[in-house]
Amino acid sequence: MGDERTELLQGTLELLILKTLAMAPEHGWGIAQRIQQNSRDALSVNQGSLYPALQRLERDGAVVGKPGLAANNRRVNVYHLTPAGRRLLARQVENWNRFADAVGLILNMA
User: Fold this and answer.
1) What is the pTM of this model?
2) Residues contacting residue 5 through CB under 8 Å, at least 6 positions apart
3) Are 101 and 108 in contact (CB under 8 A)?
4) Are 26 and 34 in contact (CB under 8 A)?
5) Contacts of 104 (CB under 8 A, 6+ apart)
6) N or C: which end of the chain has fewer CB within 10 A?
7) d(CA 8, CA 3)
């Protein structure tokens, strides 16, 4: 998509964080990088949005941050999805699919 990147809505960002952590635990910068890579550079995560979203998810018990090391041996918080986070992810994926189907119906009207 060239240099155009889509700004993420708050709920969408949390969904993408949960999905990313369902694949593997990761630190904040790594989460942002994976989202960008997995979207083929279409989505960019603003650090000013990422960390507040991680804090909300941690406060709600969906993720837990544990001390770890980044590839460069820098100390970081590595976030892990909790069982509650897996349940939340399943609900949010279901809601997202319903929403996308509804928008698709409207956009494809003759």
Assistant:
1) 0.86
2) 41, 42, 43, 44
3) no
4) yes
5) none
6) C
7) 15
10 pLDDT band, cuts 50/70/90, is low
Q: Which pair of structure tokens corresponds to residue 85? A: 């986070």
Supply the DSSP string of 42-62, one letter for each residue: SB---HHHHHHHHHHHHHTTS
pLDDT tens-place string over residues 60-77: 999 999 999 888 888 999
Q: Which residue has the higher pLDDT, 46 or 86?
A: 86
| Count, residues in the chain | 110
Using only C-alpha atoms, the chain has a radius of gyration, in whole angstroms, of 15
Looking at the DSSP assignment, which residues form a beta bridge with residue 80?
64
pLDDT digit string, tens, across residues 97-108? 999 999 999 999
Within the chain, residue ranges assigned H as helices are 10-23, 28-38, 47-59, 83-107
